[in-house]
Amino acid sequence: MAGDVAQCIARGSNFRFEDLYTLIYQWDHKRVLSENNRYTSFKPKKFELNINYRSHRGILQLASSVIHLLKEFFPNSIGKLSPEFSEIGGPQPIIFEDCQAETLFALRNNIENANAFIKFGADQVIIVRNEKAKQRVKDLNSNIGLVLTVFEAKGMEFNDVLLYDFFTDSPALLNWRVILSELDDYSGGIREFIPDKHYILCSEFKHLYVAITRARERLWIFDEDSEKIK
To answer: In this model, does residue 20 exceed pLDDT 70?
Structure first.
């Protein structure tokens, strides 16, 4: 069995390989004795595929920071795996600040007019939170190209990804502020982390991780509410 437990974003899903080991252990001890009255213990082997051949280091560094937050705040929600790495370098993700959506898409149109080969096609995608956000993007520009929700994009990969209004549309709202407690030099307005109260962030971290890791080459992050991405 293979998989990335950080990508378990289906509602009610919280799979870990440790849980599978426990299940196998319990099953093993309930088996009947063999012919020689001895148990033939079954010990599953685990090995990690932590070399990423899809995304470069610039993208994986951001993805690793999300995994770090998962491990720090919700250690029981993810297995103990080594961080992924890539042997290929690449550009850091770009965050758009103080920019309106109309300006962003107008800029894209101007680029396309000057260079006909630059367009959102099969290798580019805009990833949004939900169907409502998808419609909002299409209302801004009906010819924008492929727009998918995070759940729809899971398992897919694209050269270029624009993550649109992920934090603006987040149901976690101000709960995101609690992660500032991870910053050594930040002491203002930090909320006390309470797992039961802030558990929605566990799902949010995983959704963010899935969205980030869809990109092979370039990742752009845009939020109309720029305060939420600082």
So the answer is: no
Number of other CB atoms surrounding residue 188 within 10 Å: 5
- Give the burial class of 127: count Cβ atoms within 10 A of its Cβ; 0-12 exposed, 13-18 middle, 19 or more buried: buried
pLDDT of res. 126? 93
Q: Which residues of 197-226 are buried (b: 16+ CB within 10 A; e: fewer)?
A: ebeebbbbbbbbbbbbbbbbbbbbbbbbee
- Work out the mean pLDDT of the chain and round it to a whole number: 76
What's the pTM? 0.75
pLDDT of 113: 43
Residues in the chain: 230
* Cα–Cα distance, 14 to 31 (Å, whole number): 27
Out of 3.40.50.720, 3.40.50.300, 3.40.50.1820, 3.10.20.30, select the CATH number for domain 5-229: 3.40.50.300
